[in-house]
Amino acid sequence: RIHRVMQKGQSIASRILEIKDRLIPGRRIVMNDILKEDAEVTKNKLLLTFLSMLELAKIGFVRVFQAEPY
Length: 70
Description:
Elements: H1 12-22, H2 31-36, H3 43-58
Helix pairs in contact: 1-3
């Protein structure tokens, strides 16, 4: 049998705190710029960042908009 050891993932709460520390009031930032600050961008990190940004928008800390149709 093969046993895979998985690293414990980061929580949305901790990612929100990381993002909040990087934001400057009144300044716009693109989500890609937030991701570029990380050493390695994985699918999990991308999803975690997206969900964290949605949560920040839900509580009114940031405003989120889409620049062009997907």
